[in-house]
Fold this sequence. Notes:
The chain is α/β, with parallel strands linked by helices.
Amino acid sequence: MKQYTHILAALDxxxxxxxxxxxxxxxxxxxxxxxxxxxxxxxxxxxxxxxWMDPIGIKRLHAEAEYQLGxxxxxxxxxxxxxxxAVLDNGVPKKRLVNQLYxxxxxxxIVIGQSGGSAFGQVMQGNTVARTVQKRAxxxxxxxxxxxxxxxxxxxxxxx
Length: 160
């Protein structure tokens, strides 16, 4: 099995919580005694209409993203991850994760959640962020299917 030294966990801290990807990244980081960088790429274009209606709303969302990343970082430290950093970046997630963040962080593993959705929805949306990262990243990529993870979690829960 390959030994990892630095893991990049690509999280979506605002739209759909990345709990499964986060948990997996922490599990691997603890197992390999690897450093962990938690990253969220704030895509301003997704919030263009909010900016028109409420210019301060974008600042609030940005602040919420910083807060959520901090909470994830603290949680990772509590789980025993040796070194944890949090990065809030701006831009198009597909491009920023594979290009700028990869070059700056130099991870040997990227853990990212797959939002899922129907096959038709994925075709209409084009390549998802996870799929693009998986195709283009020059390191190992572990895509966590959130739908499968939630089913596994439900089956692992004790019966009451």
